[in-house]
Design goal:
This protein is an alpha/beta fold. About 30% of the residues lie in helices and about 30% in strands. The mean pLDDT is about 95.
């Protein structure tokens, strides 16, 4: 997927700060901000610098992402790697306060100096330690913190049943469980919840057509339609859009262009909102677009925020 200059991605950093502050207040525990995959497409540098004073640490997927975050981590908050490590040097990780996740005795021993964090398998069955190996991994890495990937409260309860009596700092709740007080433990790891409503993605009508004749590859028929310079190369799918405050549809998607239905009074150059607030009130939420695309809200956000040129407000 590549970006195009015709797609504008506007990020409201004040909205991100408001979201994070609300999460911290409502949960009452440390917030470990998930900024993997370029902060879900919003731009990791901008996000890290915008919310550094509100969070206890950062969460990424890979060592490369951790190194990127460390460049902008002026407050030296700890950085947790969720995915596997390979040949990273434990002493170098420790200097940057990068803490790798581990789930085997071998990796726990190798990375002990970097204060590794135990990932416990409670059902995800991916990059996590099975119950029977937990004690050995804790001992090998001198581990003082553990977590699990939890989408349901049952996973949190399982984490507690496995390591709840070890005196470890524990966290399990990502965005899906923030409202459940029983899931908060010692910290929460929000991702999507920090970014909801903060991104507006839009482009412009560059050509319009009137009349009901068949058009496009599929021969669709629409009374009025226009063309935008955004297609499946940028991850766009058929679904909702906003034009002049009215809900319209992306009716056909090509590689680098798409056909959108328009109203009788829409004109060349009018803004087509693919995500976020429209100019005349109302907006397209991540949930609405995700339902139309039959994907997750996270995928919508990462896809559309990575489709164009980013700009920021509320810095």
């Amino acid at each position: 997927m590549h970006t195009v200059a015709q797609v504008q991605v506007n990020i409201d950093l004040a909205r991100v700060r408001t979201n994070v502050a609300a999460i911290a207040k409502s949960t009452g525990v440390d917030v470990i901000a998930v900024v993997k995959s370029d902060a879900y497409g919003l731009g990791v540098r901008a996000i890290v610098e915008a919310i550094a004073d509100l969070v206890a640490g950062w969460c990424v997927f890979s060592p490369d992402e951790a190194n990127d975050v460390s460049k902008w981590n002026a407050r030296s908050k700890p950085i947790l790697i969720l995915g596997p490590s390979t040949n990273e040097d434990a002493k170098e990780l420790a200097k940057l306060r990068i803490r790798p996740s581990v789930w085997s005795v071998e990796e726990a021993k190798r990375l002990r100096l970097a204060k590794p964090v135990l990932c416990v398998d409670t059902g995800m069955r991916r990059f996590a330690c099975p119950r029977e190996n937990v004690d050995a991994v804790i001992a090998a890495g001198e581990i003082d913190e553990a977590f699990t990937h939890a989408t349901r409260i049952e996973y949190v309860k399982m984490l507690l049943s496995i390591v709840g009596d070890r005196g470890l700092r524990l966290h399990a709740a990502a965005s899906a469980l923030l409202d459940d007080s029983a899931a908060r433990l010692d910290a929460v790891r929000p991702g999507l919840a920090m970014y909801r409503g903060a991104a507006k993605v839009s482009c412009r009508l560059i050509e319009i057509h009137r009349g009901g004749r068949p058009a496009g590859y599929s021969g669709f028929v629409a009374e009025h339609f226009g063309i935008i310079l955004c297609g499946y190369s940028q991850g766009l799918c058929r679904g909702p859009c906003l034009i002049n405050g009215q809900r319209r549809r992306v009716v056909e998607v090509g590689m680098q262009t798409a056909f959108v239905e328009i109203g009788a009074h829409d004109r060349n150059g009018d803004e087509v909102v693919l995500l976020g607030d429209g100019s005349l009130g109302g907006g397209l939420t991540e949930a609405e677009v995700a339902a139309a695309w039959d994907v997750s809200e996270q995928q919508v956000l990462r896809t559309l925020c990575g489709a164009g040129i980013r700009s920021y407000r509320g810095e």
